[in-house]
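F.,

This is the one I mentioned.
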């Protein structure tokens, strides 16, 4: 009765952490194949092996050349793809593995954070037409101009999977990880977080951009652009996961939809981020053009900034303080670049603070419900959490707090929006959280 569908299945590093994991994943893929479906698999490097390769590179060179670092890191996915193909062969099914380049993942030349500009999956299509299971190395591609090997940035295998799903016209892109789906908050912080049944691309984008690590931001962007339904689920359990789509879930996947899904809440989830720092430029002359000078300096270092606040200066009249948040990993670079221009810009001082946390509440319902912001601020007041910065989009409110207040803030917001489930549902099946 069931028509043949094409599914792209992506397995993350924690799902293939060791030989047993690889065998378990191989069985799961074969079961799907047995049901008559075509399967293309995208696999990440085993366990923490990408981190281990980075550590190795740093042992031989403090600043490894970007081209060589990418070449090294792609080795992690080559190992897992070949081993997985062997495990599938051992179950009596034929599988062929392909590097990103062989799979036609064409990127720009930005080593370490390359963007996919085209996917030409001719060899993959051929492999599945012949009845094989195709296994593709995640997170890697080949530069269109130079033919150098590139990587897509940490966590990029999700993006490989969605891009292949789009190029092959797959019915769904399944992202297997070590939790059952997308939760209303990180279950490690909020044990009563509940699993989301279905979420729109726009909301998932905001959650991913606000620190939720379950899906790579670019993968969600790509899925939205090409209308690829994503099903986030656990490779360790058979439970239905979370669907990311703006359309109803296709009827052939009805069994894969969580039955007791909550009614659409105003707020879909609470995300948090500990990876940012706050930089304050103190005593900036309060005249036109100074903000543009400051942010041009930061931009020329290719640093993405997030929130900005400008205040009357704490030091003297006619001056202002400008604070902004940026990835902690870019903090030293930004401080150095600004310091070098201190006299040109005419500011008095720089302050750097990496003891901050960011909380974001996301929900399409806030567009049409007044009072969502007030509820958040009341909850934070009751939890005695001080708000240092605020930013909003149409469907998101973010605040910066002290780092050590962040967990309390997340729990308070989660409760205030009635997101707590009755019992703790979330099981983290694998992974080291590294
Ligand atoms: N192996 C790469 C990483 O650890 C890519 C991925 O896992 O998606 O970042
Ligand atoms: Mg990984």
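My design for it:
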């Amino acid at each position: 009765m069931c028509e043949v569908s094409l599914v792209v299945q992506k397995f993350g590093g924690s799902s293939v952490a060791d030989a047993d994991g690889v065998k378990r994943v191989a069985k799961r893929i074969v079961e799907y194949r047995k049901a008559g479906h075509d399967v293309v698999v995208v696999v990440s490097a085993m366990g923490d092996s990408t981190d281990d390769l980075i550590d190795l590179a740093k042992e031989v060179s403090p600043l490894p050349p970007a081209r060589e670092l990418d070449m090294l890191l792609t080795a992690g996915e080559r190992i897992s793809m070949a081993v997985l193909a062997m495990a599938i062969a051992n179950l009596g099914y034929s599988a062929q593995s392909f590097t990103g380049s062989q799979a036609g993942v064409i990127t720009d030349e930005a080593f370490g954070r390359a963007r996919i500009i085209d996917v030409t999956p001719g060899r993959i299509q051929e492999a599945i037409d012949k009845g094989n299971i195709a296994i593709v190395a995640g997170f890697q591609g080949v530069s269109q101009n130079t033919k150098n090997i590139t990587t897509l940035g940490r966590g990029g295998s999700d993006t490989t999977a969605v891009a292949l799903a789009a190029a092959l016209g797959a019915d769904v892109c399944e992202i297997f990880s070590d939790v059952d789906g997308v939760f209303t908050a990180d279950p490690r912080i909020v044990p009563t977080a509940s699993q989301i049944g279905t979420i729109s691309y726009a909301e998932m984008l905001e959650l991913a951009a606000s620190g939720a690590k379950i899906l790579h931001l670019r993968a969600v962007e790509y899925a939205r652009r090409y209308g690829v339904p994503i099903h986030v689920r656990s490779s360790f359990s058979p439970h239905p996961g979370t669907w990311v789509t703006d359309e109803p879930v296709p009827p052939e996947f009805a069994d894969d939809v969580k039955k007791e899904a909550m009614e659409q809440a105003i707020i879909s989830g609470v995300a948090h981020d500990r990876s940012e720092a706050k930089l304050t430029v103190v005593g900036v002359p309060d005249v036109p053009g100074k903000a543009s000078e400051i942010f041009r300096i930061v931009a020329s270092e290719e640093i993405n900034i997030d929130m900005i606040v400008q205040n009357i200066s704490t030091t003297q009249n006619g001056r202002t303080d400008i604070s902004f948040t940026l990835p902690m990993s870019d903090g030293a670079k930004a401080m150095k670049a600004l310091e070098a221009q201190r006299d040109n810009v005419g500011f008095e001082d720089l302050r750097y603070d990496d003891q901050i946390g960011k909380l974001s509440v996301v929900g399409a319902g806030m567009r049409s419900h007044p009072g969502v912001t007030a509820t958040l601020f009341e909850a934070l007041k009751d939890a005695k959490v001080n708000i240092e910065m605020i930013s909003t989009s149409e469907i998101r409110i973010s605040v910066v707090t002290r780092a050590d207040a962040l967990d309390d803030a997340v729990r308070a917001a989660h409760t205030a929006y009635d997101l707590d489930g009755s019992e703790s549902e979330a099981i983290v099946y694998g992974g080291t959280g590294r």
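The longest strand covers residues 276-285.

Talk soon.
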